[in-house]
# Entry
Amino acid sequence: MKILHVITSMRTGGAEKLVCDMLPLMRDQGHQVELAVFDGTPGHLLESVRQHGITVHIFGYGLKSIYNPQHINKLKSTIGGVNIVHSHNTSAQL
# Structure
C-alpha cells in the first residue's frame, strides 16, 4: 500500500518525532511510504527520515511556507497513485 504522510515541518516536536519513528517501521512492514513537508528547513529529524531511504517531497522553506495556499497544487501532483494520505498538524489537514 502506498501511504503519503503530510506534515507542516520536521522541526523538533511530538508529531515530527512520531513521523520520524513511524515511517521506517511502516516501510519495513511492506508499505511504500513517502513524506510531504510544507517547510523543508533542514534538521536532524528530516535527515533521519532521508537516511532511512524514505522519499521526501519538500514544498517550501521557512515558517511562512507552512500556510502557503500554493501547496495545494503541489500536493495534488504528489498524491497520484497514493492509496492513503495521512495528515499531521492542523495546517496539513486544511
In short: Helices lie at 14-28, 44-51, 71-78, 90-93. Residues 2-93 form a domain with the Rossmann fold fold (CATH 3.40.50.80). Residues 14-28 form the longest helix (15 residues).
